[in-house]
């Protein structure tokens, strides 16, 4: 998988600006190393017992109290719980840089963030049109930490996908996903028009965020 | 009937899946299976009975997920009930049926990748073990489905230290033959055998066909019986459900092939049913158990891989040792581990197979430092370590938390050293170096050294340590003192190897002490020693002459088949970063800092020092350059990687300048600052950037690290009379931890201590709300705050 350098640069605060030669070289190095990554994994489960109100979403009997999540899932008959991780090998890559090369560590961090997002994007592409999707359309994926979807709900998503056993994804006492470069998300499946579009536009920090996604 | 005896004589069958059966019986998503031991014991008992009827000899109690964090007060009752139910079913099935306490992962990722310490994980497992073995109803403990060798070690020790039962251990591997945290089969076998497991192997993760390669490798490597419990295939999505679709017949055929290959215990994991077990028992009827053979391998391991000693000569990097290294000794005394960590990376890059680590400095508390540095080293390198200390308590503490099986340096012929160290090696595994000296000193004949070596090997046997795990050091003395020493050592080496059949090791560098061009002398001695039978050499892997001797010897001896490695080492040139530099010779230090050309920093600093005093270089070149870069960053012309590279360039330049700064140049430090990522949070890149910049600007940083307990921050601030504390948190949940830290600092009465809060999740308003004095949006802002506080005294 080719690294999406534009996204990695976005995570470094570059926006649309071009990187200098040295940063470019560091990105090259990180991209090469990431190609050797063999521990990236995803796991997902599709739930049909989905019940959405204005304030909450109930998936597989588990209640999520978030208006923003409910807004994304409005009109959905099914929900996909997706969990993805680059694995502990990626964490070790960053730890190793951290001691000897801080600038590479910063670039590696951004590159890995871009990488895990790409893995999630690729999952969505493959899922769309698969038998499991059953002809339904996918909403944008929505994760704890977006809007009012609190990160204290992480354990629920992990449990719904059996992610700890299947891909070794855990959650610390402070609700941090471990290994660190990981994503948990809810994706709605609907027969109607799905809520898609730019995830950034719905965020309360949109006006001031240095890392905002550029449209187009 | 004795389980260990049955294991020696027969092929043992475990049971199949419990979870699958419980789901069929109505277990809901999110419901804890272990609670059914209390609420629906009849269902559990029935499942055990069905497996015994199918031919299982051992059932695992329904305690797989029974850990205190999940079950709380219900842990002991649920575990005891689970064990009782299994016992009842076993008794009903008659003699020769056994009960295993089942222990699965605790659900927390251990450090350094997670926030749970080794000791915390140990405690979690110990509670389950105590609850499950208190009534004496179990015949063994099964620790299974582990994806992390470190967690497995905590679990195995918790069993060994809380009961006497046999312990069976299985890891989960993926199609790449690695565990979740990246360990290969060799590392797993080394660790589990080193810890004294009675039976080891693989479960879950793969179906029987996918497991074949792993089973083959296990049979080749292991010297203890092997247990294999595959899933009923890989999960497939069919008709709206996830199912495992390997039939009992297919399953049984694979298991029978495993039995013929030499596997001694079999069972099934996810998706398997009593039908699968019955078919497997049937298919294996009449297969004669293959005797387990001792493989005689000397292996030391890290979290990820095992290194075999004896197949080809092994290089042990010697540089993390303060003897004769002023900078390293200073760094250790100042509790700054960044230099040893960089040495580790450098030695690994140069080709070391293992790294020696020694922190024996007068005035240093080895008992806390040695485990700490071992932990830090293991977070940046996957090479196994040689833990080197004369302090048995320090050794024990370090070996306990070591992730893998280490090489231990050392014991010698004196009885006390062996009494102190052999029990540690027995408990934690690994190989131990034996020095050929005793209370009479160093024997001056090869026969004399052989005698000491023999005594060490024989004493080791008393402690249950096999000969394969003893590595003898015939001792290298300097030829400057007596020119006969070199050949004396070599003769002793050959003699010991021939007579005792042990692996050998030498600290090569000693031979040339006092002579010029030491590398040349060492390289020749190394070559001779390799020919004399040396298995491991302690050298400086960054000395090209030494590595060249090692590589070329291996070509000549045939160890490097077809000289592949030698040719590749000659061809692979390390890309110097100077590839990017243009007119390198004439670029000023200022330019070099602004452009972040780290690799040119040292030379440019030296040139600048030829023309200006150290203080002038700092004040008229480095600081203005940094200021310019900082401004560029804040105005959006430069970006984070460039800021960091410039800061690192200054850091390197400082390395040179510090040596020239004298006391007359005034206060070395502009002020002392504590930095810490708060408890519960392990993000630290931002904090580390702040640290480098603050140091660039002349401040001294006490970096307490990440996930720092509140008490540590308060105590350090009090003890060191700190006036500025920088706290970092990156999650909404750990901001709460920051609030508590700030509150504790206030309650400790630290008036005059200014608290600065930073981290992407914070805002100015929020920082004020949780009681911080300042909010720093980025590293430059932190530097400005420090300057105002310490230099201008205005805040």
Structure at a glance:
The complex is a heterodimer of chains A (216) and B (795). With 216 residues, chain A is α+β, with helices and mostly antiparallel strands.
List keywords for this structure.
heterodimer; A: 216 residues; alpha+beta; NADH Oxidase; four-stranded antiparallel sheet; three-stranded antiparallel sheet; 7 helices; globular; B: 795 residues; alpha/beta; TIM Barrel; Methyltransferase, Methionine Synthase (B12-binding Domains), Chain A, domain 1; 4 domains; eight-stranded parallel sheet; eight-stranded parallel barrel; 31 helices; 25 strands
Can you lay out the helices and strands and say which pair or pack?
The complex is a heterodimer of chains A (about 220) and B (about 800).
Chain A: H1 5-11, H2 21-35, E1 41-47, E2 50-52, E3 57-59, E4 62-64, H3 67-73, E5 78-85, H4 88-100, H5 102-127, E6 137-142, H6 154-161, H7 163-167, E7 170-171, E8 177-178, E9 182-190
Antiparallel strand pairs in A: 1-5, 2-3, 3-4, 5-9, 6-9, 7-8
Chain B: H1 3-9, E1 12-13, H2 19-24, H3 36-39, H4 41-54, E2 58-60, H5 68-71, H6 75-93, E3 98-103, H7 118-133, E4 140-146, H8 149-160, E5 167-171, H9 185-194, E6 199-203, H10 212-221, E7 226-229, E8 235-238, E9 241-244, H11 248-261, E10 265-266, H12 274-284, E11 298-301, E12 306-309, E13 314-320, H13 326-333, H14 338-350, E14 354-357, H15 366-380, E15 385-388, H16 392-401, E16 407-412, H17 415-428, E17 431-435, H18 446-462, E18 470-473, H19 485-500, E19 503-507, H20 518-531, E20 536-539, H21 544-557, H22 564-571, H23 589-594, H24 601-611, H25 614-634, H26 640-658, E21 672-677, H27 685-696, E22 700-703, H28 710-719, E23 724-728, H29 732-747, E24 754-758, H30 764-769, E25 774-775, H31 779-792
């Amino acid at each position: 998988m080719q690294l999406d350098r534009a996204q990695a640069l976005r995570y470094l605060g570059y926006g649309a600006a071009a990187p200098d030669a040295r940063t470019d070289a560091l990105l090259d190095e990180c991209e090469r190393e990431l190609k050797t990554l063999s521990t990236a994994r995803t796991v997902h489960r599709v739930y049909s017992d989905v019940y959405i109100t204005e304030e909450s979403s109930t998936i597989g009997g588990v209640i999520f109290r978030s208006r923003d999540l409910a807004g994304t899932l409005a009109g959905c008959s099914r929900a996909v719980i997706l969990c993805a991780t680059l694995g502990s090998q990626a964490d070790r890559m960053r730890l190793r840089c951290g001691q000897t090369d801080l600038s590479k560590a910063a670039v590696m961090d951004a590159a890995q963030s871009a990488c895990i997002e790409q893995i999630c994007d690729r999952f969505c592409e493959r899922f769309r049109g698969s038998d499991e999707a059953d002809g339904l359309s996918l909403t944008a994926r929505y994760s704890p930490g977006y809007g009012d979807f609190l990160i204290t709900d992480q354990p629920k998503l992990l449990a719904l996908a059996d992610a700890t056993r299947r891909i070794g994804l855990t959650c610390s006492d402070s609700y941090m996903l471990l290994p660190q470069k990981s994503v948990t998300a809810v994706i709605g499946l609907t027969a109607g028009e799905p809520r898609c579009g730019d995830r950034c536009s719905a965020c309360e920090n949109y006006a001031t965020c240095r890392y905002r996604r550029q449209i187009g | 009937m004795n389980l260990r005896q049955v294991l020696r004589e027969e092929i043992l069958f475990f049971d199949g899946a419990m979870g699958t059966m419980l789901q069929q019986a109505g277990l809901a998503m999110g419901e804890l299976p272990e609670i059914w031991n209390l609420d629906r014991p009849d269902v559990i008992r029935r499942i055990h009975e069905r497996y015994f009827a199918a031919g299982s000899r051992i059932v695992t109690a329904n305690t797989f997920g029974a850990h205190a964090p999940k079950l709380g007060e219900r842990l002991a009752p649920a575990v005891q009930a689970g064990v009782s139910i299994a016992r009842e079913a076993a008794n009903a099935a008659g003699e020769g049926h056994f009960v295993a306490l089942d222990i699965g992962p605790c659900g927390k990722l251990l450090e350094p990748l997670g926030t749970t310490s080794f000791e915390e994980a140990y405690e979690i497992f110990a509670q389950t073990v105590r609850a499950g073995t208190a009534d004496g109803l179990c015949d063994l403990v099964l620790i299974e489905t582990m994806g992390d060798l470190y967690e497995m070690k905590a679990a195995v020790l918790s069993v060994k230290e809380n009961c006497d039962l046999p312990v069976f251990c299985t890891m989960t591997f993926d199609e790449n033959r690695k565990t979740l945290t990246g360990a290969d089969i060799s590392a797993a076998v080394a660790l589990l055998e080193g810890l004294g497991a009675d039976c080891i192997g693989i479960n879950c993760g793969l179906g029987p066909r996918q497991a074949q390669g792993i089973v083959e490798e296990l049979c080749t490597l292991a010297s203890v019986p092997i247990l294999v419990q595959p899933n009923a295939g890989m999960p497939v999505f069919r008709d709206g459900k996830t199912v495992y679709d390997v039939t009992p017949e297919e399953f049984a055929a694979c298991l029978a092939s495993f039995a013929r290959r030499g596997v001694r215990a079999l069972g099934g994991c996810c998706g398997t049913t009593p039908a699968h077990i019955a078919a497997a028992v049937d298919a294996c009827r009449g297969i004669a158990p293959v005797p387990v053979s001792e493989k005689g391998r000397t292996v030391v391991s890290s979290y990820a891989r095992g290194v075999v000693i004896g197949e080809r000569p092994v290089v042990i990097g010697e540089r993390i040792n303060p003897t004769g290294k002023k900078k390293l000794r200073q760094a250790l005394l100042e509790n700054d581990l960044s230099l040893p960590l960089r040495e580790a990376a450098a030695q690994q890059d140069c080709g070391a197979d293992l790294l020696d680590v020694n922190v024996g400095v007068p005035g240093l508390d080895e008992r806390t430092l040695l485990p700490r540095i071992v932990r830090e080293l293991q977070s940046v390198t996957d090479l196994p370590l040689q833990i080197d200390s004369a302090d048995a308590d320090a050794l024990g503490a370090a070996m306990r938390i070591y992730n893998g099986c280490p090489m231990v340096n050392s014991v010698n012929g004196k009885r006390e050293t062996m009494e102190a160290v052999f029990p540690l090696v027995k408990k934690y595994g690994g190989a131990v170096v034996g020095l050929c000296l005793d209370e009479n000193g160093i024997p001056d004949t090869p026969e004399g050294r052989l005698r000491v070596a023999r005594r060490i090997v024989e004493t080791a046997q008393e402690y249950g340590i096999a000969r394969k795990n003893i590595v003898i050091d015939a001792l290298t003395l300097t030829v400057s003192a007596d020119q006969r020493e070199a050949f004396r050592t070599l003769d002793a080496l050959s003699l010991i190897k021939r007579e005792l059949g042990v692996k050998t090791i030498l600290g090569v560098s000693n031979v040339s002490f006092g002579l010029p061009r030491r590398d040349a002398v060492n390289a020749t001695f190394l070559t001779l020693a390799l020919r004399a039978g040396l298995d491991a050499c302690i050298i400086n892997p960054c000395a090209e002459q030494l590595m060249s001797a090692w590589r070329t010897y291996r070509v000549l001896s045939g160890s490097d088949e077809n000289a592949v490695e030698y040719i590749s080492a000659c061809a692979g040139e390390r890309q110097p970063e100077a590839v990017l530099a243009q007119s390198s010779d004439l670029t000023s230090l200022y330019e070099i800092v602004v452009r972040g050309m780290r690799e040119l920093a040292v030379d440019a600093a030296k040139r600048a020092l030829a023309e200006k005093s150290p203080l002038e270089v700092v004040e008229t070149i480095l600081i203005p350059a940094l200021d310019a870069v900082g401004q560029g960053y804040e105005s959006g012309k430069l970006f984070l990687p460039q800021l960091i590279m410039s800061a690192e360039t200054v850091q390197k330049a400082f390395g040179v300048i510090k040596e020239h700064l004298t006391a007359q140049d005034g206060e070395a430090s502009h002020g002392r600052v504590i930095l810490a990522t708060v408890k519960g949070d392990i993000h630290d890149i931002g904090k580390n950037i702040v640290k480098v910049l603050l140091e660039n600007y002349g401040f001294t940083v006490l970096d307490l690290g990440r996930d720092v307990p509140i008490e540590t921050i308060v105590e350090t601030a009090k003890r060191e009379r700190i006036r500025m504390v920088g706290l970092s948190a990156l999650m909404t949940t750990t901001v709460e931890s920051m609030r508590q830290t700030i509150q504790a600092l206030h309650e400790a009465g630290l008036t005059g201590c200014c608290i600065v809060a930073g981290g992407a999740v914070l805002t100015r308003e929020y920082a004020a709300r949780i009681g911080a004095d300042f909010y720093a949006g980025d590293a430059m802002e932190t530097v400005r705050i420090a300057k105002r506080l310490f230099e201008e005294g205005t805040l």
